[in-house]
Structure formats: structure tokens, C-alpha cells
């Protein structure tokens, strides 16, 4: 019995050693400073249902609920190939990149963890929404009493404007000092009060702005539309800066109808007044109006 336990322990040790330093870091997590678990520059495999390790190429093949973590991002997918020496991963199967404010999805993700870049391709969607910060000097709301207890605030009250970007490809630079997403090919960005189209969009998360270039088309919630070669849009604040505007703004049909109805009423009032003024002072009113 003792011999059997010793053999099992040796076998487990050989499997862990063959899987490389990355698995040791995840299994233990208590290495001394400078050990594998302390190397924040390298990606970390948080979970995988199945793992195969090729010692010759130092490559991991991961399948099932795969989760990577690196700096402040998480990378989820159904299948991934991670190259240990290059510190890169190729992910597929509903891959998703998340940081505290932004989520990027697509068909494929190629991550270079050393460069802190994730390239997402095919059917790409970016959803970004920052948490609201209380204004400086703003007093905390009074606590509700048991007699007049208020319902909890809605979740959306804690967040700023939502921006949704769709495109064919995006390069997400997630370095904490950069945080830039470069979207190309058939770019569309939607906010609650506007929709924009462009050939290329650069979303600067730290500055909360989107720079659009190429054939830019902007449509506001009022129905105004214009084109330009370059525009900058604020994500949180309500402003647009455009250059070389060549399009013509137009109103919604409802506004036109309201304006048309107002014009007809005014014209009718003028006609009625004109008929009254056209009557002579000593001329009796029409027979239909006599008592």
C-alpha cells in the first residue's frame, strides 16, 4: 500500500513537471518572489476542462471553458493554443476579451501578451461603458428610513453612456497607460443619441473619445445627417467635432409635418382676419349670423 502511494505521488510529479512552469504556478500559487506565479508579464491559465502539453514545441492545447488572465483583462474561449516561449495565444469558439469597462467579442482572438495586444477578427463587437464617478464635493444621499424606504437604484444609473462598435477587425491595445482599440472595415458605432459609420475608428478609452476617418457618416437622434472625412466624438459628453463637412442635414418627417401644420394654421388665421377686415363698417353681418 505504501509503495502504491509513493508511485502515485511520483507519477503526479512527473505530469506536473512535463506540463511546464505555467501549470506549476497555477497549481501552487505560493512560490517565492521571482518564481513563475509572480511573473505578471506572462499570461496565466485560470481554467481549462482539458489540457494537452507538447514538450517539444512548448505548446499548450486547451479545450472547454478556457480562461486566461493577464494584467487587468480576462480572455475566454472554447479552444485555445498557447505558445509558452512566445507568450501568445490563438483562441476560437466564442472568444471574449474583457477589462473593467470594455468587452470585445468576435470569431477569433490572437493575443500577444508580451505586447499587450489582442487582435479580434470576424463579426467583431465592442461594448464599452464606464462606471459613473460622483462629482467632487457631492454629498452622499440620505439613508432611507424604515418608514419611507426607497427601492434600490437601477443598475444603469451607476454607469455612463453605452457605446457599441461593430466592425470586421479590431486591434485592442490594453496596456494600462494606452487603452486603445483600432477598428477597421465596415465600422459602425452606436450611442443612445447618434449612429456613425466610418472606414476606421480609433477608440481611446482613457480620453473617452472616438476618432473616425474615411467615409464618415453621422446620423443624430433628431434625424440630422452629414458626411465628412474625419470626426471626433466624445463617449461621455455630448459633442462632435467634424472637419470638411460636405453633407446636408435633414429633419425627421414628424418635424416637417409639425412645421407644415403650423404654417397652415397661420395661413388660415391670416385669411380669416383678412375677410373680417374686408367688411365695411356700415355693412350688416351676413344673414346667417343675424339673431
Structural features, described:
By secondary structure, the protein is α+β, with helices and mostly antiparallel strands. It has two domains: 13-25 and 41-90, no CATH class; 95-132 and 158-265, Lipopolysaccharide (LPS) transport protein A like domain (lipopolysaccharide transport protein A fold, Sandwich), CATH 2.60.450. Helix content is 18%, strand content 42%. The protein contains three helices and 15 strands. It has helices spanning 2-18, 21-28, 253-278, and strands at 44-47, 50-54, 59-70, 73-83, 88-92, 96-98, 102-105, 108-112, 117-128, 163-173, 180-191, 194-204, 209-220, 225-234, 240-243. A six-stranded antiparallel β-barrel has the order 4-5-8-9-7-6. The longest helix is centred in the last third of the chain and has 26 residues, at 253-278.
Give the strand order, joined by hyphens, for the main sheet. Answer: 4-5-8-9-7-6
How many domains would you count in the coordinates? 2
β-strand amount: 35-45%
For the record, give the distance between the C-alpha atoms at the N and C termini, rounded to a whole number: 123 Å
Global morphology: elongated
Text of the CATH class of the largest domain: Mainly Beta
Low-confidence blocks of residues: 6-37, 139-152, 154-159, 265-283
The largest β sheet comes out as:
6 strands, antiparallel, barrel
Number of strands: 15
If classified by CATH, what would the architecture of the largest domain be?
Answer: Sandwich
User: Structural class from helices and strands?
Assistant: alpha+beta
Rg from alpha-carbon coordinates: 32 Å
Give the fraction of residues assigned to helices.
10-25%
Order of helices and strands: HHEEEEEEEEEEEEEEEH
What value does the average pLDDT take?
76
Q: Enumerate how many helices there are, as a single number.
A: 3
The CATH topology of the largest domain comes to lipopolysaccharide transport protein A fold
CATH evolutionary superfamily of the largest domain? Lipopolysaccharide (LPS) transport protein A like domain
Amino acid at each position: 500500500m505504501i509503495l502504491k502511494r509513493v508511485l502515485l505521488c511520483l507519477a503526479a510529479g512527473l505530469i506536473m513537471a512535463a506540463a511546464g512552469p505555467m501549470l506549476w504556478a497555477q497549481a501552487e500559487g505560493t512560490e517565492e518572489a521571482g518564481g513563475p506565479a509572480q511573473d505578471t508579464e506572462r499570461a496565466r491559465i485560470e481554467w481549462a476542462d482539458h489540457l494537452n502539453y507538447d514538450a517539444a514545441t512548448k505548446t499548450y492545447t486547451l479545450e472547454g471553458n478556457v480562461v486566461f488572465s493577464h494584467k487587468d483583462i480576462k480572455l475566454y474561449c472554447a479552444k485555445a493554443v498557447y505558445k509558452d516561449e512566445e507568450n501568445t495565444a490563438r483562441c476560437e469558439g466564442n472568444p471574449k476579451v474583457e477589462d473593467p469597462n470594455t468587452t470585445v467579442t468576435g470569431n477569433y482572438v490572437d493575443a500577444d501578451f508580451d505586447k499587450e495586444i489582442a487582435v479580434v477578427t470576424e463579426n467583431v463587437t465592442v461594448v464599452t461603458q464606464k462606471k459613473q464617478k460622483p462629482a467632487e464635493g457631492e454629498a452622499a444621499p440620505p439613508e432611507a428610513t424604515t418608514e419611507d424606504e426607497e427601492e434600490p437604484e437601477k443598475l444603469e444609473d451607476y454607469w455612463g453612456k453605452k457605446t457599441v462598435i461593430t466592425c470586421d477587425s479590431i486591434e485592442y491595445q490594453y496596456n494600462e497607460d494606452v487603452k486603445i482599440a483600432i477598428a477597421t472595415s465596415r465600422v459602425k458605432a452606436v450611442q443612445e443619441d447618434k449612429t456613425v459609420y466610418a472606414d476606421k475608428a480609433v477608440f481611446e478609452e482613457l480620453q473617452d473619445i472616438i476618432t473616425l476617418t474615411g467615409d464618415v457618416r453621422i446620423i443624430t437622434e433628431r434625424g440630422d445627417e452629414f458626411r465628412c472625412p474625419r470626426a471626433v466624438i466624445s463617449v461621455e459628453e455630448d459633442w462632435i467635432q467634424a472637419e470638411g463637412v460636405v453633407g446636408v442635414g435633414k429633419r425627421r418627417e414628424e418635424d416637417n409635418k409639425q412645421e407644415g401644420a403650423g404654417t397652415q394654421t397661420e395661413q388660415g388665421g391670416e385669411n380669416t382676419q383678412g375677410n373680417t377686415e374686408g367688411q365695411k363698417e356700415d355693412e350688416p353681418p351676413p344673414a346667417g349670423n343675424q339673431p
